[in-house]
Amino acid sequence: MGRNAEVPLRELNQQTSRVMARVEAGETVTITRDGVPIGDIVPRGVSGGRPAYPFRTDPMGPLELPDLGGPVLSDDEIGGTLRGMGSADD
């Protein structure tokens, strides 16, 4: 298995060929900006790195909705209102 190393984004920008040669040699390179990891470059065919998600995975805490003074509706009333919205029949 290859080694792991951190490379600042500036070094990747200025020394791309050298960094990619390290990856080609089997090394996984973590790119950092101001010391904070922002991405990984892994050799082709290597798995087991950190997964990247297109959405937030950290807990955001309880969701607090403001009271806008509207009527209180049940789930069935909301469903009935929304049913059919956006259909081609409108």
If you had to describe this structure to a student in words, what would you say it looks like?
The protein has three helices and three strands. The protein is an alpha+beta fold and 90 residues long.
Low-confidence stretches: none
As a percent range, the share of helical residues equals 25-40%
Apparent shape:
elongated
Element order: H for helix, E for strand = EHHEEH
Structural class by helix and strand composition: alpha+beta
Write the SSE topology:
Elements: E1 4-8, H1 9-14, H2 16-24, E2 28-33, E3 36-41, H3 75-82
Parallel strand pairs: 1-2
Antiparallel strand pairs: 2-3
Brief summary:
The protein has 90 residues and is α+β, with helices and mostly antiparallel strands. It is 26% helix and 19% strand.
Give a quick set of tags describing it.
three-stranded mixed sheet; 90 residues; 19% strand; 26% helix; single chain; 3 strands; alpha+beta
